[in-house]
Amino acid sequence: MQQVTIEDIRAAADRIRGSVLRTPLIPAGWGDPERPLWIKPESLQAVGAFKVRGAFNAIAALDDDTRARGVVAYSSGNHAQAVAYAASRWGIAAHIVMPEETPNVKVAATREWGATVVLCGAGERERVAARLVTETGGVLIPPFDHPDVIAGQGTIGLEIAEDLPDVETVLIPVSGGGLASGIGTALRALCPRARVIGVEPELAADTAEALRVGHRVDWPIQDRNRTIADGLRSQPSELTFDHLRRVLDDLITVSENDIRAASRELALRAHLVAEPSGAVALAAYRSTATPRGRTVIVLSGGNVEPALMAEILVG
Amino acid sequence: MQQVTIEDIRAAADRIRGSVLRTPLIPAGWGDPERPLWIKPESLQAVGAFKVRGAFNAIAALDDDTRARGVVAYSSGNHAQAVAYAASRWGIAAHIVMPEETPNVKVAATREWGATVVLCGAGERERVAARLVTETGGVLIPPFDHPDVIAGQGTIGLEIAEDLPDVETVLIPVSGGGLASGIGTALRALCPRARVIGVEPELAADTAEALRVGHRVDWPIQDRNRTIADGLRSQPSELTFDHLRRVLDDLITVSENDIRAASRELALRAHLVAEPSGAVALAAYRSTATPRGRTVIVLSGGNVEPALMAEILVG
């Protein structure tokens, strides 16, 4: 299977420059002295999540005629806003298929970037998206299962290597695996001595199991849906699992309580709003399983319902 | 009266480099299209507020023998942690006088940076600080009434000018006035066409009145204490008022409801935790009094009690 290379990631960095925020690496003086801590806050992206990197790169990599026909995506989460935002930067049409039960605030945010939102029934979204591709001639932008998306997310790894070349540990949330595949690929090339560690909720730890048994495993969606980390309920594709197997040194799982505590700690000590999925890397950092040394956590996103964030803050 | 110059601010930037975070200027795509918006998030500093710039510069500017005797400060707020942090970076002693009623979490945070906290009764803090200066030989670091503190805060203006040289409006919270004096001085020199606008809560609008009448006015502390923006209850000194009169184009006042709404908007759209005092510039941005054009808001700090932040989030 064709793997994404550091050259692909460098090309992605050239494409997204000026349109996607180059996030700072923020030193957190309140970390454990044995594990000096830096935060990579992808929550500061215009759409509140790293997804904009992959979406923008995938659209930028299209040839002009193809791109002009617009794009299609299905997502109830951060990928929806990311594709809508990237399409708006290119001035092209975006059709985003979202389940009818998607919270209004997410539908509104996607529409605010100029996208056409098409609501659909449960289990219908892939069929509806396929119809839109046929009708509009647009290109489907997948949330993780595409080399250009992986390469886009990998630009985070490029930036970590530039800002902290002697990093020793990088902790990355794992869901569909595009983020960890991209960052891991960049770090393997640029910081070969750094440990690249994935993080999953215990309640959606399919990749932890898959890495143990050496092949992908399927956890029922009703099981994965139990975690508060609603962005981490996907499973790797063949393409991303093939990357993860090669680039991850380890995968740490964290409890629901650890995730809530980490989100609270990020708000009160780093003054960054993290959605539960975005806080798992700090939860893993607080785990005794994490090695010593200079550590970067990837805060993948900050889109959280206000009532849930309020509940997390008061503990 | 001797005013701080752009050369003082450049010297401060050299002194604080590497010890104080050079914060990014974050484009906020969700701003008003007629007023493209950027956020300067000083909440990302290690102590959660801009105060570390002035404190660090004031300590760095001391001669080695004087600095070695340590520093003293009195504060119940962000200045306490800022001086404690800066002293810890220099490896010198810090004695911080705090009122007995200071929330435990702030006392603990100050101690975490290695400072000795001296609790005192109401109205006692200046006397206790003076005694500590005599006893320890340490230097008093004031929160705003000092040229080196103003020059340190001014480095924010230097960074804004570097990152967005064609900025048209900059909105800055005003309390004791050190922040706005410093930033305004930098912008007058580097971006002479930018409008520099102070922001105060309506309930602590002594500087708005002072600028109208042309001299400092004294609002009773019980009046100023009514605002939720607990970091904006101080009043300018002669030194800072003299700067403000020269560098501010205008001063906008905002209501308590506007401040809460702005803090909520920063959390949900920018994914940044702002204390109420840190949110007033966004409140002013949302006011019809604000001119059009490329606008920077200074988010001055993010240290907020979790229960209050939770209350703000659920509206």
The side-by-side strand order for the widest beta sheet of chain A comes to 1-2-10-7-8-9
CATH architecture of the largest domain in chain A: 3-Layer(aba) Sandwich
Query: Percent of residues of chain A in beta strands?
Result: 5-15%
DSSP helix count of chain A?
Answer: 14
The major beta sheet of chain A can be summarized as: 6 strands, mixed
Could you name the CATH class of the largest domain in chain A? Answer: Alpha Beta
CATH topology of the largest domain in chain A: Rossmann fold
Protein name (chains A, B): threonine ammonia-lyase
Organism (chains A, B): Mycolicibacterium sediminis
Enzyme class (chains A, B): lyase
Cofactor (chains A, B): pyridoxal 5'-phosphate
Architecture overview:
2 copies of one chain form a homodimer. Chain A is of the alpha/beta class. Chain A folds into 2 domains: 6-49 and 146-313, Rossmann fold; 53-140, 3-Layer(aba) Sandwich (Rossmann fold). The first copy, chain A, has 14 helices and 10 strands. Chain A has helices at residues 6-16, 51-60, 64-68, 78-90, 104-112, 125-136, 147-163, 178-190, 206-213, 221-224, 238-247, 256-270, 276-285, 306-313; strands spanning 26-28, 37-41, 71-74, 94-99, 116-120, 139-140, 169-173, 195-201, 250-254, 295-299. Chain A has a 6-stranded mixed β-sheet with strand order 1-2-10-7-8-9, with helices on both faces. Chain A has a 4-stranded parallel β-sheet with strand order 5-4-3-6, with helices on both faces. The longest helix of chain A has 17 residues, at 147-163. The first copy, chain A, starts with 5 loop residues before the first helix and ends with a helix. The model of chain A has no long low-confidence stretch (mean pLDDT 96). The interface between A and B is medium-sized, with 35 and 35 residues. Chains A, B: Keywords: Lyase, Pyridoxal phosphate.
